[in-house]
Amino acid sequence: MSLSLDFLTLPLLAAAGLVFISVLAGVFSARAGFSFLLVFLLVGVLAGEDGPGGLVFDDFRLSFWVGNVALAVILLDGGLRTDFDTFRTGLKPSLCLATVGVVVCAGLTGAAAHWLLDLSWPLALLVGAIVGSTDAAAVFSLLKSSGVRLNERVAATLEIESGMNDPMAVYLTLTCIGVALAVAAGGPSTVGPMEVLRSLLLQFGWGAALGLAAGFGMAELLKRLGRGEDGGGGIRALLLVSAGLTVFAGVTWLGGSGFLAVYAMGVIIGNRARRLVRSSLSAMDGYAWLSQAGMFLLLGLLVTPTRLLETLWPALGISMVLMLIARPLSVWLCLAPMRFARNEIAFISWVGLRGAVPIVLAVFPVMAGIPGAQTYFNVAFVVVLASLLLQGSTIAWSARRLGVTLPDPDDEQQVRQVFGDFVLDAGTTMDNLCAFYGLPVPGEPSQTLGHWLTEKLHRPPVVGDSVALGQAELSVRAMEGGQIRRVGIRLG
User: Is the dihedral of CA 398, 403, 406, 407 positive or negative?
Assistant: First the structure.
């Protein structure tokens, strides 16, 4: 009697085949402007019980486990690639969007769910919390693959926000589940305002403190290990991933935000040991893509399209409210006081991509035993599908349309169209500049051009910012150390 290896080969054949088909289809779909992530999700659906594949998969526990681990790896990879320099322009707006923005967006979306799905307020707000945050996996991958070069302010805000808003979404989801369970039990809710505040401070405090401490410690360890033969990029990437998952699990077990901790850890390591981390980024990219592929395929397998149709139209209505009302209003409330330009606010509003995070969060109510939890999962899936299909496929077009892109430095004609034909030193005094070009002299003639531009912008300058002076347009052309170095001028 021979040993049968079907228990190994058949699942492996199915899993490897699905990944292969997804990647192959993704290569062709990317050329048409569609997201790789969308392809992974759709392949999972087609392989499921209602699709041609016919695979019956309803293991929410496994999907929950894989989803959380995958998100931790993706956030670590994103943190390792986040430069401290981007915090100059992106940290303050990102913090506002990741906290106040998520709450406002969740509240407005919850109101739509209350009306469209006829849910009680606790359950409707739970829907809003599940879909209220942008997704790091979607934002990181789609911004990289879009082929456009965004100005630093917009790119930094989007990337840092997507890395920081998951903890708030997880916190809101767990809070709403606690309230919903208390209401369903017929008793008063034990989640009072002080308990909410205490839980918030505990999660964010532990997450930030332990993540930063782990980051400094890991950076020093990498420096001591140096660049020996045993510390190559692949081995170092494996070391980083295992350390990141250890921190994620440990902080979560202690009651903190593991997502915030692993992202903060990645940022510190990536900046404190940049030379050592750089050789590992290629391997880290592979880990991140494998995490995204596995996560989206599993989440796609969980979906049953025939059940999805039961709430399709209300879910599409919630998607439209989220994309066209809730996200734009929350972004405007956060960024308008910080003097973001209208086109920047519009683009950041549109690129509020939803990906795996809402679907993973939609598993939380299923695990908690909330009545009708499958509805939240179906709604989250439709929201993600609509976001990847409409927003994800139009990133490049909307960026160019709204004028938040920078020219290719090697394209001289395009550079001249954006910055003008002449280049000025930022140390030029305004009286000399205005006398030479016949422009009106500002209030302080002895002021340098760089200082004048910074004051007129009323915000940290980035390459691409422009200010009108008489018949001329002056544009920031080069920065160094947070200071303007070169300025382009267009006349007439």
Answer: positive
What confidence tens digit (pLDDT) does each residue in 25-52 have? 777 666 655 667 778 888 888 888 888 8
Distance CA 258, CA 416 (A): 46
Q: Are residues 374 and 485 in the same domain?
A: no
Q: If you count DSSP H runs as helices and E runs as strands, how many of each does the chain have, helices first?
A: 24, 4
Cα angle for residues 381, 58, 305 (degrees, 5° grid): 40
Instruction: Evaluate whether residue 4 is within a structural domain.
Output: no
User: Is residue 3 situated within a structural domain?
Assistant: no
Q: Are residues 238 and 111 in the same domain?
A: yes
Q: Which two tokens stand for residue 217?
A: 């410690």
Last residue of a domain, one of 368, 384, 402: 402
**What CATH number does residue 196 fall under?**
1.20.1530.20
Q: What is the pLDDT, as a whole number, of residue 46?
A: 86
Quote the DSSP letter at residue 427: T
Whether residues 377 and 446 fall in one domain: no
Interacting residues of 425 by C-beta distance below 8 A, sequence separation 6+: 449, 485, 486, 487
* pLDDT score of 455 more than 70: yes
Same domain, 294 and 320: yes
CATH code (residue 440)? 3.30.465.10
How far is Cα 378 from Cα 249, in angstroms, rounded to an integer? 28
Query: What does the alpha-carbon distance between residue 300 and residue 47 come to, in Å, rounded to a whole number?
Result: 8
- The answer to whether residues 398 and 433 belong to one domain is no
Residues 78 and 162 in one domain: yes
Same-domain pairing of 126 and 215? yes
For 133, how many CA atoms within 13 A lie in the half-sphere containing its CB? 34
Please state the φ and ψ torsions of residue 134, each to the nearest 5 degrees: -75, 165
SS3 content of the chain, % helix, strand, coil (to 5): 70, 5, 20
The position carrying tokens 């020219």 is 407
The answer to whether the pTM exceeds 0.70 is yes
The runs of H, that is alpha helices, within 226-311 are 233-253, 258-272, 274-278, 281-302, 305-308
Cα–chain-centroid distance for residue 41? 18
Domain termination site, one of 383, 402, 421: 402
Judged by phi (left if over 0) then psi (alpha if -120 to 50, else beta), residue 145 lies in alpha
Residue 217 C-alpha from the chain's centroid: 26
Question: What is the rounded CA–CA span in Å between residue 26 and residue 20?
Answer: 10
List the domain range (segments joined by +) for residue 484: 412-491
Closest by CA position to 43, among listed 286, 303, 285: 303
Q: 411: buried, middle or exposed (CB in 10 Å: 19+, 13-18, 0-12)?
A: exposed
Q: What is the DSSP letter of 324?
A: I
